[in-house]
């Protein structure tokens, strides 16, 4: 099921073709010279998002990522490979009191700059295009 997206990704994804999402570094945490995480602020932008609700957190992330890869690798209204932006973001949801992690997660792909004004529509109805306001992200 993922053979075509993986072939497309390996054909078209040399390191110089990966677009890093523009951000402002707010904080960087290191331990013994190793980066633990960065706190970043991303500007207002459009993202392709999918909310997953599998029994296991890791399974939700994996399945959400695979669906986004299909969108990136031609299963969109342009019929074209959209290119990779990094990082792919995972949003962990909490319950109403914010005391526990919820079962659902959102996996999101930043649309490349050239697609921000008119993003291709996904064929998968589970994927939605959202415009996010300026956002804080923790990255490892």
UniProtKB/TrEMBL annotation:
<dbReference type="GO" id="GO:0020037">
    <property type="term" value="F:heme binding"/>
</dbReference>
<dbReference type="Pfam" id="PF04832">
    <property type="entry name" value="SOUL"/>
</dbReference>
<protein>
    <submittedName>
        <fullName>HEBP1 protein</fullName>
    </submittedName>
</protein>
<dbReference type="InterPro" id="IPR006917">
    <property type="entry name" value="SOUL_heme-bd"/>
</dbReference>
<comment type="similarity">
    <text>Belongs to the HEBP family.</text>
</comment>
<dbReference type="InterPro" id="IPR011256">
    <property type="entry name" value="Reg_factor_effector_dom_sf"/>
</dbReference>
């Amino acid at each position: 099921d993922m053979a075509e997206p993986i072939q497309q990704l390996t054909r078209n994804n040399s390191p110089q073709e990966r677009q890093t999402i523009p951000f402002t570094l707010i904080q960087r945490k290191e331990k013994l010279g190793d980066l633990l995480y960065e706190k970043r602020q991303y500007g207002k932008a459009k993202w392709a998002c999918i909310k997953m609700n599998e029994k296991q957190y890791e399974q939700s992330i994996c399945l959400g990522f695979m669906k986004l890869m299909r969108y990136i690798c031609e299963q969109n209204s342009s019929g074209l490979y959209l290119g990779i932006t990094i990082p792919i973001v995972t949003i962990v949801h909490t319950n109403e009191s914010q005391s526990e992690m919820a079962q659902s997660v959102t996996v999101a792909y930043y649309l490349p700059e050239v697609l921000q004004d008119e993003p291709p529509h996904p064929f998968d109805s589970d994927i939605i295009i959202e415009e996010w306001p300026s956002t804080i992200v923790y990255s490892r």
